[in-house]
Amino acid sequence: LCCQELEKLGLRDDVDLYVYEVPVEYQTVQRLIPALWKKHSPQLVVHVGVSGMATTVTLEKCGHNVGYKGLDNCRFCPGSQCCVEGGPECIDSIIDMDTVCKRVSALGLDVTVTISKDAGRYLCDFTYYTSLYQSRGRSAFVHVPPLGKPYTAEQLGRALQAIIEEMLDVLEHSEDKINCQHEH
């Protein structure tokens, strides 16, 4: 629902926003994430997941490769208990989440934003790692609390809009720096 709010709000004019619902199924994630990257070649993919344990909007710094023991909605669990066999244990987002968190907090929205290094070793973490692996780090994951605990869909939609715009800004500035280094 907060993603529907985000769709209504949109992002700045030069950004095309595509919203997809990803099923809570390991095998679908492994097929769908690469297909979406191939279809859109996006500048950034931001995944949003609901966490019953979250009380804040949480920016996840990294995805984990191993430790997936929970059954998905199809009662399936990867035999290897990992996302990518032989892949690194952890992949960090190239987005500096500390900077994004500080910037969004400074906007004075009525939503608290925090940072985490553990997306939970279930489908959220699995999706994030798969996307980070596919994109060489050009992904982000935001955990939101269940609706009404304590935020409305509107509050979460506005927070996501601000977070994604800051993420794009941070990404564009880090790329400017990289491009400058290449030119010298």
Report on the structure:
- It is globular, with a radius of gyration of 16 Å.
- α2 runs parallel beside α4 and α3 crosses α5.
- Helices cover 42% and strands 14% of the residues.
- The protein is α/β, with parallel strands linked by helices and 184 residues long.
- The chain starts with a helix and ends with a helix.
- It has 5 helices and 6 strands.
- The protein has one domain: Peptidase C15, pyroglutamyl peptidase I-like (Aminopeptidase), CATH 3.40.630.20.
- The strands form 2 sheets. A 4-stranded mixed beta sheet has the order 1-6-2-5, sandwiched between helices.
- One of its GO terms (biological process) is proteolysis.
- Keywords: Cytoplasm, Hydrolase, Protease, Thiol protease.
- InterPro entries: Peptidase_C15, Peptidase_C15-like, Peptidase_C15-like_sf, PGPEP1_Cys_AS, PGPEP1_Glu_AS.
- Monomer.
- It catalyses: Release of an N-terminal pyroglutamyl group from a polypeptide, the second amino acid generally not being Pro.
